[in-house]
Fold these 2 entries.
Entry 1:
Amino acid sequence: MRSVEDLNGRKRAILIAAEKCFAAQSYEGVSIRDIAHEAAVPIALVGYYFGAKNELYHAIFEYHSSYLGNRLNQLRDARRQHTGGNMLDAVIAAFVLPTLELNQHPEGQYFCRVVMRGAIDQHEASERVARDFYDPMARECIAALRDALPHASNDSIRWSYQFMLGALLHHVVDTRLSHLDEHDAPLQHATPYLLRFISHGIRAATAEQ
């Protein structure tokens, strides 16, 4: 994740404010005025630094490009450095752990919610983000799963990717469990359970029937 110090004060404030607004409500429901109010800057300054709303939305993902690039590189390393049964767990870890690490920071939590909302709303701005930032990662992950599970069908691999993504996104944005169980534990304590859940789920889903 880029350091917030890489941006000047007001530009940084606008970007973080945009993350908060897009995390809290739908893309269509957020206005430039809302973002300017959250950032405590004149509305014209938002357009000066970022242009239209769709460009500001895209800039959020550019801001997190180092995290996205690191995640993609870890997937590639998992394909190169692991073989056989170890590869699947390495691929899952490469896909999951960077997001869990990001989600430990307040700014990262906002970003994870923006990602989740974009996946649900499927608006034009989110489709551009998917093409630019997430499609390369999805293709790399699916290719890595194929390498790790060479006897699995293409359909089972593609759906396994989809279900792994769903489990990860739901885990990082849904905090209701803390209200349901009096024996609450820090979110990071769930990491080994999530990894095992995904690993066993993929192995079962891709097994020959």
Entry 2:
Amino acid sequence: MPSEGIKVVADNRKAFHDYHIEDRVEAGIILTGTEIKSIRSGRVNLKDSYARLDNGEVWVHQMHISPYEQGNRYNHDPLRPRKLLLHRAEINKLIGKIQQQGLTLIPIKIYLKKGMAKVELAVGQGKKNYDKRQALAEREGKRDIERALRDRNKAY
């Protein structure tokens, strides 16, 4: 994805730890006025969020957008479900993938693109505990190798 005009507001790093990411889709999101102001100030959390298909529509649940500080009685509920905007063909493609065993929709990134809030959805399969340990061991091994090469190059 080109970085021109894109400001990443929040990442869901836990998703990469808990899921094997297979496919990604960009989706728009329907927001109220105070929600977009909170997102622009960076007050959003995707940690425990997930997306679900309901009646042919995609909804994101448990995405926490903090109430806007200057908002008064028009403030929003921080955890309300929010509708995502996708083309019908994209939704049908997601439905086909979700009906496979063990696949789920996870929001992995929320960003501003040309002033509009976008959510990057990923289709992922849950990792088992041994997969998580294996990934951690590989990451530590790479760090050890890089550290050894760096120390070796400093000696010369």
